Amino acid sequence: MKMAANLKLLSFLIPCAFLVPVLITMAPDLKEAWNSEALQNMKTVFIGIFLEAAPFLLMGVLLSSLMQWFVSEEMVRKLTPKNPIGGVLVAGLLGIIFPICECGMIPVVRRLMHKGMPAYIAVTFILSGPVVNPIVFTATLLAFPSHPEITIARMGLAFAVAASIGMLVYLFVRRNPLRMPKVAGTEVKTHPGFKMAQPHANAHDHNHVKNWRSFFIHAGDEFVDMSKYLVIGALITACIQTFISRSDLISLGNGPVASYVFMMGFAYVLSLCSTSDAFVASAFSHTFALGPLVSFLVLGPMLDFKSTLMLLSTFRTRFVIGLSLAIITLVFAGSWLINLLV
Question: 194 has which bridge partners?
Answer without folding.
Answer: 191
